[in-house]
Structures are given as C-alpha cells and as structure tokens.
Design goal:
The complex is a heterodimer of chains A (315) and B (322).
Chain A (H helix, E strand, L loop, with lengths): L3 H12 L9 H17 L4 H14 L2 H5 L3 H20 L21 E7 L5 H14 L4 E5 L7 H12 L3 E2 L7 H14 L4 E5 L8 H14 L3 E7 L6 H11 L2 E7 L8 H10 L3 E5 L7 E3 L2 H9 L1 H9 L1
Parallel strand pairs in A: 1-4, 1-5, 2-3, 2-4, 5-6, 6-7
Antiparallel strand pairs in A: 7-8
Helix pairs in contact in A: 1-2, 2-3, 3-5, 5-12, 6-7, 8-9, 10-11, 12-13
Chain B lengths: L15 E2 L2 H17 L4 H15 L3 E2 L4 H17 L7 H12 L3 E6 L6 H14 L4 E6 L6 H19 L6 E4 L7 H14 L4 E6 L7 H14 L3 E7 L5 H15 L11 E5 L9 H10 L3 E5 L7 E2 L3 H9 L2
Parallel strand pairs in B: 3-6, 3-7, 4-5, 4-6, 7-8, 8-9
Antiparallel strand pairs in B: 1-2, 9-10
Classes of the chains: A alpha/beta (315), B alpha/beta (322).
The complex binds guanosine-5'-triphosphate (2 copies) and magnesium ion (2 copies).
Chain lengths: 315, 322
C-alpha cells in the first residue's frame, strides 16, 4: 500500500515547524496550509479538511504555547495533528452515533453479513476474501449471490467460491434477489453454517429498482452486519455516496478496496465520517488472500511514519 | 453567481491594474470550489495559476475581480474539454474498413471495475444500430466470470439486432477461456474478423492497477502486437486525484514497455458512471487536461443505451455553479 506519499507530505508540513524558533500564528497557518493541501490531494472531503483545520487551530492554544519550551510546542502540535487524523478514520473518536464496537463474527451461531456498494467497487471480490479469511480461522462459511442484474455475476461468484473452496448458493433462473437471499440463508442456516455472506448488485440511490432490492434484502434477511464496500480511488463524491447507503440500510462497517495502487484512500476515509462506521478491512489486490485488517491508529502512525516524528521532536 | 462569492465581488469599482493580492482571495475560494467538484488538486492549481498570470496587471473597470476570474476560467475549461465535442468514431471506422479493407480494431483498457466490459457492450450496441458488424475479443482471461459476462452481453445484443431486423450485421464473441495470453487471443480474433467479414474488433482487457508492472507490460505487449486503431482508456467519473497517476502511468507503460520505435499513447477516453456523480464532474477536466485527449463517450447507466456524447457546456456550467 502506498501511503508513504501522503505521509511524506504530512511530515514535511510538520517539519516546517522544526526550523522555527517558536510556533506563532503564522507558522501554524503555514503548516496547516501544507497539511490541508496534502489531504485534499489524497481526496479527503473538502468540508472535512476545513473542519480539521479549525479543530487543530482550536486545540493548539498559541498563548499558552508561547511560554512552553520549543520542543514541547512542536510535540503539542504534532499530537493535535495526529489526533485529528485519527478522528478522520476512527468514528469511535468523535462522530455522534458511532459504532464503537468493531464487528466480529461469533462462533457456534449463524452470522449473516450483507455486502452493499456502488457498481464495481469490489463487493463480489471482497465477499470471497472475507469468506476465505474466516474459513481459514475455522468458521464454517458460505456465500449467497443475489446479483441477478449484472451480466456474469453468478459465474463470477461461483468461480471465486470454487477457487476458495467455499460453498455457495445462487440461481440462473430465479430473478428475484430477495427470494434468493431468503432461500440461500435458510439453506445455510439449516446446515449450521457460522458465517453466511450475501453479495448484492452494485447500485446507486437514483436507481430506484436496484436500491429498493438492496433495502428489501436487508429488511427481510435482517443481517447481523452490513458492510459498505468503497473503492479507495473515489474522489469528492465519496461522502454523499456513503451517506446515501447509510440512509437506506444500517451500514455497520466499511471495506476499502483497491489500496494496492497508488491511492491514498482519502475519499473512502471520508465515508467514515458520513456513516459513523469503522473501516474493518482493506483490499490490497485481486487475489483472495489480498485482505488486511484495518486499525485506525496503526494506519495513521504508519502513514505519518511515527519514527520520523520522534526524530523531529529531538532536533 | 455562487453564494460563497458575494463577499468579495464588486470589491473594485474603479479602473486599476489587478495585482496578485487582489486575485488571491478569490482564487483561494475558487480552488476549494473546483476541488469540491472533484477536479484533481494539481490540475486545479495549474489552471488557477494560468488564470492568475493572465489577469495580473490587467486593467479592469466596473466588473468585479470574480467576474474576470470566472470568465478566464470558463474559457480555459472549455478549451480543455472542447476536443471531446469533435470525435467521429463512425467516420474513422469507415475510412479504415473501406480504405484498408480490414476491420477497425479498438482496445478498452483501464483499472479494475471502472466499466470497460459494460461500456464495450454499449459501444457494440451503438455500432450494431449503425449496421457495423462487431467481433468482441474476450482478452480478460483473468477475472472470474469475465468471459461469461461478455457471453451474456453478446447473447442479449444478438437478440436486440434481430429485433431491429438488421440481418446484415453480425455480432460474435471470440474467446479462448481463462489463463491464456491476451495479446495472442487479440491477434487471433483480428485474423478471424478479417476472414469472416467483421468490420470491427472490440478488445476487452482485464482491469489492472497502474503500478502493477507485469500487468502493465502485458497490456503494452497486446497493443504492440495488434497495433489497434484506437486505444481507449476507460476511467470512472467517480475517481479523484488518482486519475492523474492512472493516466500518466498507462501512457508511460504503453510507451516504455512496447519495445517499438513508434510507441503509442492512449488515443481517447471513455468516462463511465457519469450518472452517479451529480454535479461533481471534475474528473472530466482532470483526465482531458492530463492527456489532451478527447472523451469519446460518457457512460450514464447500466443499459445498452446509456452511452452519450459529452455536453461541454453543461459540464462547464456544472463546474462553475455553486
Ligand atoms: N487491484 C485490486 N482490484 C480489486 C480489489 N478489489 C476488487 N478488485 C477488482 O475490481 C473489479 C471489480 O470487482 P467486483 O468484485 O466485481 O466489484 P463489484 O462491486 O462486485 O461489482 P458489481 O457487482 O458490478 O457492482 C474486479 O476486477 C476485481 O478484481 C483490490 O483490492 N485491488
Ligand atoms: N451506473 C453505472 N454503472 C456502470 C456504468 N458503466 C459500468 N457500470 C457498472 O459498473 C460495474 C463494473 O462494470 P464492468 O464493465 O464489469 O467493469 P470492468 O472495468 O470491465 O471491470 P473489470 O473487468 O473487473 O476490471 C458493473 O456493475 C456495471 O454495470 C455506468 O456508466 N453507470
Ligand atoms: Mg458484484
Ligand atoms: Mg471487464
């Protein structure tokens, strides 16, 4: 994953403070300008970037700072930046109505998970990855294909599932996705499966029919968790898209895909604030094992190369 | 006029030369505005810098600074997008078919999941309506279901052609299953098309990340071996700043990995999922600015008729609207 680029820019924004004898309003503004520029280049939502700038300004009390030694001035500013960045990616810090508990399947009972998202975001691929991930951890796992819309959708899931040795359910003849969801879940529950993953058609709020199918499946099946899949390369539309899904179904977690490219995922990160749901996994390739657990603080520390920050403080 | 700009308009009402300091506050707001419309940050800054340079020192009368900036920006945006209004695929195609007595070959490439295969199917439908026979080459031999996806489209399209009563046009799928070499299949398909009187070959390729060198090499191999008439880069209207890196690296790969004296670039763009972005149309600007290539079509949905020409004026208005 290439986060180094964003991390480097954030670090260089912070490093600009290292050459200053003291942190005054001008130095802070200059640093914030560079920081915000780096975030905008990483596709973080314009409004969120504006809020972050204001928050950091409020957190850093320049009058109080003035009397502190320069090293602790810098540390305080870094701390504020770090905390605000973490807030961006971790809804349990800040956002109201946030899901503080990350979702975990529980062994010995059926956990039903439904994947939703825009067209081509990586739902079908991520379903297989998640199935494979938990099957390896000993869960009895299956997949249900309710996408009766996209050409070749069932073949895709079937071939993926076969490769990953995961049992699957779907139909070439039944055209009602809700019926398939009900039948598939019932079958796998009867056979004591512990993790039942439902793949759905890609859809968008303006497509009443497909969007309605998604909400119907959610209403009828009542999944334990709804995972919103978001492409890591998405730009400024991310926030509104995420909000549209959150308003329609009870999104509980986010999977951010295609993070093996050059993308920094800033758009997808903006979805966290819009949904109040945490990112639980990121997709880092097309193969079934290309899935990584996501941890907000670790992500930001890694992004900022915290080692370097330590060095900066000592200078 | 966007509401957010009322505070600075009409700031200068007597004739005087514009300075950077006059321009700066309006430019700063314009920068946020364009980025909010999903124009890449780098492209936004380039554009506004050129506006600033053009306006600095200019004498203005009763009109506001904002009006001058807006006008200069509008002109530039139009100029960037305008080539997109003048592409005629059907004519290019007929020239090759009639002039060279061979099928016209077009490749669709791009990153994963953007809509290459779906929009290839839409282009096919449009060609069939225009009585052009199409052979689709299934050269995504990697992604699960890719071949079946095209097979389904061909079956649907054949039924539609029958409905149209165009019994002189043909539509077929050329496939060799999974795991095979894409460049070779494309070559075979082209030969087959020539031998069987198809006027066009549309080559579907696997999605690939621009940083994935082995996959980028195999795309360059495909274009080098087949010398297509058009290399179409399919990009999503949803994509943010990443579009710049995607396009730069696709072009570099096509050039550097082709091992040819006269390597190729992307010839045209196809911008998909335009129906999903409302007024955040900035990707159209970023992509045309970086490549200086026209947008051949925009995809506006998931059915075969959801393929449109871009309306430059509407896009520019959307970019400048509040
Ligand atoms: N490089 C990369 N490709 C990915 C990743 N996740 C998914 N893809 C690719 O993205 C493309 C689209 O993925 P799908 O799983 O079909 O997406 P989807 O959301 O199910 O698409 P629809 O069902 O059409 O809405 C495929 O080519 C996948 O191989 C990822 O993490 N990295
Ligand atoms: N709303 C909308 N959806 C689109 C458009 N174009 C494609 N799609 C959808 O996007 C998803 C992915 O499309 P594909 O054609 O499979 O994309 P691809 O680029 O071939 O994907 P890979 O081959 O996996 O890299 C499908 O669900 C399509 O129906 C469009 O213009 N608008
Ligand atoms: Mg799918
Ligand atoms: Mg495809």
């Amino acid at each position: 994953m290439v986060l180094n680029d964003l991390g480097r820019k954030i670090n260089s924004a912070l490093a600009s403070l290292a050459h200053k004898p003291a942190i005054d309003a001008e130095a802070l503004d200059a640093m914030l300008k560079d920081l915000c520029r780096a975030l905008l280049e990483a596709d973080v939502n314009v409004k969120l970037v504006g809020a972050l700038r204001t928050n950091i300004k409020n957190l850093v009390n320049l009058d109080e700072l003035a009397s502190a030694p320069i090293a602790s001035q810098r540390r305080l500013v870094q701390r504020a930046v770090f905390d605000e960045l973490v807030r961006l990616v971790d809804p349990s810090v800040g956002a109201t109505g946030a899901t503080t508990d990350r979702w975990q399947p529980v062994k010995g009972k059926p956990n039903v998970i439904m994947f939703v998202g825009l067209q081509g975001s990586g739902k079908t691929t991520s379903c297989t990855k998640l199935a494979y991930y938990y099957a390896k951890k000993g869960f009895k796992t299956a997949m249900v294909c309710t996408d009766t819309f996209r050409a070749g959708a069932f073949d895709q899931l079937k071939q993926n599932a076969t490769k990953a040795k995961i049992p699957y359910y779907g139909s070439y003849t039944e055209t009602d996705p809700v019926q398939i969801a009900v039948d598939g879940v019932a079958r796998f529950k009867k056979d004591k499966f512990e993790l039942i993953i439902i793949d759905t058609s890609g859809c968008h709020v303006t497509e009443a029919e497909l969007f309605g199918e998604m909400t119907s499946i959610a209403d009828v099946v009542q999944p334990d968790n709804i995972i919103f899949v978001m492409d890591g390369t998405i730009g400024q539309s991310a926030e509104i898209q995420a909000r549209n899904f959150k308003n329609a179904v009870n999104v509980g977690s986010i999977v951010m895909t295609k993070m093996d490219g050059h993308a920094k995922g800033g758009g997808a990160i903006s979805a966290v604030a819009a949904t109040g749901s945490p990112i639980i996994f990121i997709g880092t390739g097309e193969h079934m094992q290309d899935l990584e657990r996501f941890d907000a603080r670790g992500f930001i520390s890694k992004m900022m190369g915290m080692g370097d920050i330590g060095g900066l403080v000592e200078k | 006029m966007p509401a957010f700009l009322t505070s600075v308009q009409n700031l200068f009402s007597t004739s005087r030369a514009l300075t950077r300091a006059d321009l700066e506050p309006v430019l700063a707001k314009m920068e946020n505005h364009l980025i909010g419309k999903n124009v890449a940050a780098e492209v936004t800054r380039d554009l506004l810098e050129s506006v600033a340079v053009a306006l600095e020192g200019k004498r203005i009368g009763w009109t506001s600074v904002y009006q001058h900036i807006r006008q200069a920006l509008e002109d530039r945006l139009q100029r960037i997008l305008l080539p997109s209004a003048g592409t005629d695929l059907l004519r290019d195609l007929q020239d090759v078919v009639r002039g060279d007595h061979r099928p016209y070959v077009m490749v669709m490439c791009g990153v994963n999941g953007v809509g290459k295969s779906t929009n290839l199917a839409k282009i096919t439908f449009w060609l069939l309506q225009n009585r052009v026979s199409v052979l689709i080459a299934a050269c995504d031999t990697f992604r699960s279901g890719a071949v079946e996806q095209l097979r389904t489209h061909v079956r649907n399209l054949r039924a539609l052609v029958e409905q149209l009563g165009h019994d002189d046009v043909k539509i077929e799928l050329f496939e060799r299953g999974y795991g095979k070499d894409a460049a070779g299949i494309a070559k075979e398909a082209t030969n087959y098309a020539k031998a069987n009187g198809f006027q066009t070959v549309l080559i579907d390729t696997a999605g690939r990340m621009q940083d994935n060198e082995p996959l980028m090499r195999s795309l360059a191999k495909l274009t080098a071996l087949n010398r297509p008439d058009k290399i179409v880069f399919v990009g999503e209207a949803l994509v943010g700043n990443e579009s710049i890196d995607q396009l730069t690296k696709f072009n570099t790969a096509l050039r550097d990995f082709s091992n040819q004296a006269d390597p190729r670039d992307i010839d045209a763009l196809l911008l998909t999922k335009f129906d999903l972005i409302a007024d955040k149309v900035g990707a159209a600007v970023s992509m045309t600015y970086i490549t200086r290539r026209p947008i051949l079509f925009v995809g506006t949905g998931q059915t075969y008729t959801d393929l449109k020409r871009i309306n430059v004026k509407v896009v520019v208005d959307a970019l400048l609207a509040a």
